[in-house]
Design a protein that fits this description.
This protein is of the alpha/beta class. Helices cover about 30% and strands about 20% of the residues. Among the domains are: about 95-185, Diaminopimelate Epimerase, Chain A, domain 1 (Roll); about 285-460, TIM Barrel (Alpha-Beta Barrel), CATH 3.20.20.140.
Length: about 525
């Protein structure tokens, strides 16, 4: 991924875990002495380690312990009930039964299950099923009772309590309604629980060739768990913490911290494994839950323009505070109205305090118009895309937006042609999150039903790989030590069975992650080496 040396034959790693030489085999081999370990990769492909610059590490680790409602694929409410009942039978002492990866778009008629369905699983303990987007949940009657939600309960700001035809809450909770007051129904996640979950997530990421990752909404209270997991080598993937800015402002009052004010020295593990990066904000919801903020309503829903998470003036205030405190800002914005609002806030923040290339980001940046793309370029705003959304959720986008708007989603080729800085990621566990799957999705743009979501926006394999390796390093301001294979950078590699930039599409399935290295140490797939 280094344009000055696109390919090389050999690489040498020093005892400090950094690259000391790269180039022709004869030159690199001359550095070896009697104590040097030499590994022959036998023609396989070595790339910079994949960098997922937007996923949810702790959430992923916790989810791996819950009921997965996407595998095997569920076809109806009865399948969901059966999977949840099976877990209740296996663990009868649960105080709360939780499922994830739920997607109503894959059920008959695209209709949500309700509390009545979940009451068939249990009515003595709360049952909570989280939507695959993370922007909705369905709970049973016991959970509604514990949450104090009745037909008279008002919608929270930035959320909605869905009601049935009789005006009773049906168990479907959207946006802020789905994550408010969860302490009333969910068991406490102790620091020990969090450290264990982070270890599970770490193994999951290493298996997929990921050597660096960004947790895209870290709560300040979670920093000790991340620090201890890293110090204890349970979390070995280099981790960038994207802090929940609304939570920081809520806790800090008038004395707002800068990124460097978050001390991680107590958890030092060579000083480069864990750091605080961006300030994270949300401006809207998701397409699949019909909650992203649009300038025109959802298809077949003339009154529904989505849900802004914050009132525009509140979002403006949060962004200006983060900008003037020195943060790189990463704001979730999927709908065109949300993107428009965020860009206006970024521009106003620059007028309040001019900063050289603050490198603010828009996470997802899905429904873009030519005007929005031009503004992103002029303002030097990053677009952080998730190609795997198309391969996993693309048909639901067509249902929600109609074909014309769905074809405008995630215009990766146009962004590239218009010189808008972009990087790819997964938002895992919204989707499974294997970079190889994301690369293929960016190349093909094929939905689960086999439709091509605008072939003009397909990108080359080289571009897709770059956007999963080098580009995320720039998007997180860590390019000085990762993202490309160059002398002085960390020896973070992924070993693949074949070259993704040259493998024909009909042979893509044979590309597999064989090994993952961090700091020159093989942390996954050691048996694949000589």
């Amino acid at each position: 991924m280094n344009p000055e040396m696109p390919t090389a034959e050999a690489i040498a790693v020093g005892l400090d875990g950094r690259i000391v030489a790269i180039g022709r085999q004869s030159d690199v081999q001359n550095l070896a002495d009697a104590e040097t370990r030499t590994v022959n990769l036998n023609g396989r492909t070595l790339l910079p380690g994949f960098f997922d610059c937007h996923l949810h590490i702790l959430w992923l680790g916790i989810n791996l312990g819950h009921v997965n409602l996407a595998s095997p694929p569920v076809k109806n409410a009865a399948d969901i009930i059966a999977l949840l009942r099976q877990r209740r039978t296996e663990e009868p002492n649960l105080t709360c039964l939780q499922g994830n990866r739920y997607d109503q778009n894959k059920l008959p008629g695209g209709a949500h299950i309700t509390r009545h369905d979940l009451d068939k699983v249990a009515n003595d303990i709360p049952v909570r099923v989280v939507h695959t987007s993370g922007h909705a949940a369905v709970v049973n009657s016991r959970a509604l009772e514990m949450l104090g939600i009745t037909k008279e309960t008002a919608n929270p700001v930035g959320g909605e309590i869905v009601h049935d035809e009789n005006g009773e809450p049906n168990g479907v909770l959207l946006e802020t309604a789905s994550w408010s007051n969860l302490d009333k129904i969910l068991p406490e996640v102790t620091q020990s629980d969090a450290i264990t979950a982070l270890g599970r997530a770490n193994g999951y990421l290493l298996e997929r060739g990921i050597t660096s990752a960004t947790d895209a909404n870290t709560m300040p209270a979670d920093i000790p768990a991340y620090g201890m997991a890293s110090a204890q080598n349970g979390l070995t993937v280099r981790t960038n913490l994207m802090m929940s800015w609304a939570e920081i402002v809520k806790q800090a009052g008038q004395s707002l911290p800068r990124p460097q004010d978050f001390s991680l020295s107590a958890y030092a593990t060579n000083g480069h494994r864990l750091h605080v990066g961006q300030a994270k904000l949300f401006s809207d919801g998701a397409i699949t839950t019909r909650t992203c903020w649009l300038s025109e309503p959802f298809s077949g829903m003339p009154e529904n323009y989505g849900i802004p998470i914050h009132a525009p003036e509140e979002l403006h205030d949060l962004i200006v505070k983060a900008h003037t405190t020195g943060w790189q800002i990463a704001t979730h914005a999927i709908g065109d109205k949300a993107i428009d609002t965020v860009l206006a806030c970024y521009a106003d923040a620059q007028r309040v305090q001019s900063r050289f290339r603050p490198d603010h980001r828009i996470e997802h940046a899905m429904l873009l118009s030519p005007d929005l793309i031009n503004r992103m370029r002029r303002q030097n705003v990053w677009s952080i895309g998730q190609p795997e959304f198309i391969s996993g959720l693309g048909d639901a986008y067509i249902d929600a937006l109609g074909e014309e708007r769905a074809f405008r989603l995630s215009p990766y080729a146009t962004l590239d042609a218009q010189d808008v800085a972009q990087a790819f990621s997964s938002d895992c566990p919204v989707v499974p999150g294997a970079p190889l799957d994301g690369i293929r999705a960016a190349i093909e743009r094929k939905t689960p039903k086999g439709r091509i979501l605008n072939p003009l926006e397909c990108v080359s394999s080289e571009t897709a790989v770059y956007n999963y390796t080098a580009a995320p390093a720039y998007a997180t301001r860590t390019e000085q030590d990762r993202g490309t294979l160059e002398i002085g950078k960390w020896a973070d590699f992924v070993l693949l069975s074949a070259d993704p930039t040259t493998t024909p599409a009909d042979e893509w399935e044979r590309i597999q992650v064989r090994a993952t290295f961090i700091g020159g140490e093989c942390l996954y797939g050691a048996e694949q080496l000589d």
